[in-house]
C-alpha cells in the first residue's frame, strides 16, 4: 500500500521508492522530512516507515481483528474513525507547485495581510467556495446550493476551470486574494482537503460541512468556537441558516471567524508542524521491535541532490521552504494523551454544540 519506504539512520535519510504518485506529493513530503532532519540535527531517532501519498485512508481496523499481530503501520495525510493510518502533515506545507500554492510560511503571511484589505463588515455577505466539484459526490451536491431564480441559499459557489487556470499559471486563484466574503465553506474532496487551512485562515467564519475525515490538526477545532458545522445531508438549508444567523449576529460571527483564523495562524505555525513531526516520529520509533538498517535498494536523500536537480517552481518552492539553520531551542512539549474519560467528555461536548447549532436551524 506504500508509495515509498523511508529509513532514517544516524540522522541520514534513505529512500526506497515503489511507484509514482500524483504530481509532487511524495517529493515535497520527503523534502519536509529532510527539513526536519536539518532543523533538529541528531534528534530524529533511527526509524523505518512506509508512506502512502493517496487521499483515502486504507488500513481498516476491523480487517485485523482476531489476527495475531497489529495492523500494518502506514503513514498518510488523513484518517477516519474506522482506520488506523498514522496521520502526517501534508506536502503542501512546503508548497504545491502544480497549482502555484506557495510554502506555508510565505502563504500564511500573505493570507494574514490579505485579511486586512477588506474589513469583515464590508465583505460580501454570502458564503464562498471555489474548487473542483468533480472529485466527490458531496461537492457536486454542494453546487446545487448556488443561487438560482427560484431560491437563494446565501452561497456563491464556483467551479475551478482547470484548463484556464493552468494556462494562466493559477494567477487568478491566489488564495490570499480570496478573503472577500463574510463566510467561507470547507468541504472534503476525495477525503480531507488541503484547502482546509487556507479557508480557516480568512478571518471569516468557516461553514464546515460535516466530514468523517481528520488530518493531524482538525481534532483541535471546536464547533461554535472555530467554525460553524454544516449538515452534509441538508447542505443548502444548513448554509442558508448559518449565513442568516451570522449576518444577524455579526459580533458573534466575527469572533468565530477570528478564532478559526487565530488557530491556523498561531497553532499551525511551521515550527509547531515540525515539532509535531518530531514527536510523532520519536514515539513511532519506540514501537519498532528491530534495529532499522539501510534497505538494499534504498538511495540516500540529500538536500543538495533534491534541490539541484529540481527545476522551475519546484526548485523555487524548495529554496523558499528550506530550513536555513538548526533550531536554537527545544521543541514544544507534547501534552499527555487524553484519558478515556477526558476523550469521552471532549467528544460529547463537540456533539452537544453541533446539536445545539442544528436546532437553531
Descriptive overview:
This protein has two domains: 4-96 and 269-341, no CATH class; 101-268, Rossmann fold, CATH 3.40.50. 36% of the residues lie in helices and 15% in strands. The protein has helices spanning 25-39, 104-114, 137-142, 162-167, 195-200, 235-248, 250-267, 270-286, 303-309, 312-320, 340-360; strands spanning 4-9, 12-17, 47-51, 75-76, 79-80, 86-87, 124-131, 155-159, 181-186, 206-209, 213-214, 228-230, 299-301. It has a five-stranded parallel sheet. α6 (235-248) crosses α7. The longest helix has 21 residues, at 340-360. The mean pLDDT is 94. It comes from Asparagus officinalis. InterPro entries: CAP10, O-Glucosyltr/Glycosyltrsf_90. Pfam families: Glyco_transf_90.
Amino acid at each position: 500500500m506504500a508509495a515509498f519506504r523511508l529509513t532514517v539512520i544516524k540522522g541520514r535519510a534513505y529512500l526506497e521508492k515503489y511507484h509514482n504518485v500524483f504530481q509532487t506529493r511524495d517529493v515535497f513530503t520527503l523534502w519536509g522530512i529532510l527539513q526536519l532532519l536539518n532543523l533538529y540535527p541528531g534528534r530524529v531517532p533511527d526509524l523505518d516507515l512506509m508512506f502512502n501519498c493517496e487521499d483515502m485512508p486504507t488500513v481498516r481496523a476491523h480487517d485485523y481483528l482476531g489476527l495475531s499481530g497489529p495492523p500494518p503501520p502506514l503513514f498518510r495525510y488523513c484518517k477516519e474513525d474506522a482506520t488506523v493510518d498514522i496521520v502526517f502533515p501534508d506536502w503542501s506545507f512546503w508548497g504545491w507547485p502544480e497549482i502555484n500554492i506557495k510554502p506555508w510560511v510565505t502563504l500564511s503571511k500573505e493570507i494574514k495581510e490579505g485579511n486586512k484589505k477588506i474589513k469583515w463588515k464590508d465583505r460580501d455577505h454570502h458564503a464562498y467556495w471555489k474548487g473542483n466539484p468533480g472529485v466527490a459526490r458531496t461537492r457536486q451536491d454542494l453546487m446545487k446550493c448556488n443561487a438560482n431564480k427560484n431560491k437563494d441559499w446565501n452561497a456563491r459557489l464556483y467551479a475551478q476551470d482547470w484548463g484556464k487556470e493552468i494556462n494562466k499559471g493559477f494567477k487568478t486563484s491566489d488564495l490570499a486574494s480570496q478573503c472577500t466574503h463574510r463566510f467561507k465553506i470547507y468541504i472534503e474532496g476525495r477525503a480531507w482537503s488541503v484547502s482546509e487551512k487556507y479557508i480557516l485562515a480568512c478571518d471569516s467564519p468557516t461553514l464546515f460541512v460535516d466530514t468523517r475525515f481528520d488530518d493531524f490538526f482538525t481534532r483541535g477545532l471546536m464547533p461554535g468556537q472555530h467554525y460553524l458545522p454544516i449538515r452534509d445531508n441538508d447542505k443548502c438549508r444548513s448554509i442558508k441558516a448559518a449565513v442568516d444567523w451570522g449576518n444577524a449576529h455579526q459580533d458573534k460571527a466575527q469572533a468565530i471567524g477570528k478564532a478559526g483564523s487565530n488557530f491556523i495562524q498561531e497553532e499551525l505555525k511551521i515550527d509547531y508542524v515540525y515539532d509535531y513531526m518530531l514527536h510523532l516520529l520519536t514515539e513511532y520509533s519506540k514501537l519498532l521491535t528491530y534495529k532499522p538498517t539501510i534497505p538494499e535498494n534504498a538511495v540516500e536523500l540529500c538536500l543538495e541532490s533534491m534541490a539541484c536537480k529540481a527545476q522551475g517552481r519546484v526548485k523555487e518552492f524548495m529554496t523558499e521552504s528550506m530550513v536555513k539553520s538548526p533550531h536554537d531551542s527545544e521543541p514544544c512539549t507534547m501534552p499527555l494523551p487524553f484519558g478515556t474519560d477526558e476523550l469521552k467528555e471532549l467528544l460529547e461536548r463537540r456533539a452537544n454544540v453541533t446539536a445545539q447549532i442544528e436546532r437553531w436551524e
